[in-house]
Amino acid sequence: MTTSPEDYRLRGGANVSTLPKISLHDHLDGGLRPQTIIELADAVGFALPETESGDLARWFSEKSDSGSLVEYLKTFDVTTAVMQTREGLSRVAREFVQDLSKDGVIYGEIRWAPEQHLTAGLSLDDAVEAVQEGIDEGIDDAQNAGSRIRIGQLVTAMRHADRGLEIAELAVRHRDRGVVGFDIAGAEAGFPASRMRDAFDYLALHLFPVTVHAGEADGIDSIRGALFDGRALRLGHGVRIAEDIVVDRETDESSYVTLGSVAQWVKDREIPLELSPSSNLQTGAIAAWGDDLVDHPFDLLYQLGFQVTVNTDNRLMSNTSLSKELVLLGEAFGYDLSDFEVFQLNAAAATFLPLEDREELVDQIIAGFEQA
């Protein structure tokens, strides 16, 4: 389901969709267009739960709103099923880039797990090349439409599998052909980063950047493992770092905050948090604090000086976009354009690009917000 840019405006009238934005945490298999799923499923003979695009979009949204990451992840059985061919992967990647560009994204890192796309005979390298082909086409499409966007792949290994080192080698092998970083994803609880220590050792040896899903479906020990075993430069979600923060309120106007050792480390080292508000609600990642967006620890982390960034996680499952997430946060916490600019500058600094390219993104963001 695509949404036109004008749908996301602040109460003051500013069109958030036209603001320059950075997308750090966005899954390829979580951002398909429902109509594309229908057409690709028909081509490969895969039976869908719904065969009309609107009904299928609602099915994804309802099934994803379970309060459980494990249940949430089951919806990906449908999307990955239609992404097993070169044609399917390239089309999905191309449209993914088109949709990001239409939402004002000027740089995005697309994460996906090649090991989940091999059932039709593709090799790991074939899959990465197919996605890159689609990305390149999407970038050309955006340029032809008058926009400019850059994209990097984040090659992901699944936590429950035992292919971490193989996927790390794949990522490094394609580092000069579109891949900018490595990630691990999937069921977090019970599958710590230490299971893939050999992969992380290999990546460190080759000076290759890493982000790790941590602090979503598991707590502080998982975050500690991402930092220690994974040498993560960013935390995928990381929202449960708030479990390591104690807020003692004396009155409505005053409170004292104590940070535990992990939270203090993450804050002091300015390790970016890839927060995804709507997704965090759907998966129950913020259940300890409440069940509404206003209960999300996002504002606490922001006010305490953590490097917060705003992300979508899976646009299809959450029926969202980066602009929509920003507007939702603005409504929940009273943020304005100056706050949104901070979030984008944080994200630009956190990208896995060379310093000069990150500085260029910063300049683009500042210029874009000055014109808003």
Automatic annotation (TrEMBL):
* EC nos: 3.5.4.4
Enzyme class name: hydrolase
Q: Could you tell me the superkingdom of the organism this chain comes from? A: Bacteria
Give the InterPro entries listed for this entry: A_deaminase_dom (IPR001365), Ado/ade_deaminase (IPR006330), Metal_Hydrolase (IPR032466)
Q: Which Pfam families match?
A: A_deaminase
Gene3D superfamilies per UniProt: Metal-dependent hydrolases
MF GO annotations: adenosine deaminase activity; metal ion binding
Which GO biological-process labels does this protein carry?
Answer: adenosine catabolic process; hypoxanthine salvage; inosine biosynthetic process
What the entry lists under PANTHER family is as follows:
ADENOSINE DEAMINASE
From the Swiss-Prot or TrEMBL record, give the protein name: adenosine deaminase
Species? Marisediminicola antarctica
